User: Which sequence fits this backbone?
């Protein structure tokens, strides 16, 4: 792969920051839509919390899956001229989108949570426990420095890659 077609880490992180703002909005809308269920199930209902978590996960996958399979770009990726494609350069199929979503969820949520629970069991509420768990967030990004194609770990595992698109030329005055 041509190194110039791979987006830089700073571009990927900027896109991720922008994406996180959009994701928070999606999560708030889904949570607000399910809030009336508190009247039926009760505020501290395990079922309510489980339904909200499943609905949020489904909404996030619907957003990512739709964007990745339709154009290869989320709103943030369009802003930063990044496209997600399969290893052969084609748009993702829904199965690939689901695989990437689940792998990324395990790397960015699963490993830090399991790490935190393990460290907390051993060291209690020591402040370093949180930081040790958060170190796992670096793993998918740092893997690009060891990958021959400069792919993030979740892209390597899912069989996808990010491509840097050229900036469009502006029409108008020359």
Assistant:
């Amino acid at each position: 792969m041509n190194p110039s077609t791979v987006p830089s880490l700073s571009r990927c992180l900027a896109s991720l920051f922008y994406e996180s703002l959009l994701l928070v909005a999606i999560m708030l809308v889904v949570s607000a839509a399910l809030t009336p269920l508190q009247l039926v199930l009760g505020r501290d209902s395990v079922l309510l919390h489980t339904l909200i978590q499943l609905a949020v996960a489904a909404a996030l996958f619907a957003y990512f899956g739709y964007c990745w399979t339709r154009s290869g770009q989320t709103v943030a990726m369009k802003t930063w001229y990044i496209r997600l494609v399969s290893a052969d350069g084609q748009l993702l199929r829904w199965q690939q989108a689901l695989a990437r979503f689940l792998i990324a969820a395990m790397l960015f949520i699963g490993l830090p949570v399991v790490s935190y629970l393990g460290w907390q069991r051993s060291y209690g509420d020591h402040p370093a426990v949180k930081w040790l768990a958060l170190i796992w967030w670096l793993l998918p990004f740092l893997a690009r420095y060891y990958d021959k194609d400069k792919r993030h770990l979740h892209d390597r595992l899912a069989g996808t890659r990010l491509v840097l698109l050229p900036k469009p030329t502006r029409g108008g005055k020359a």
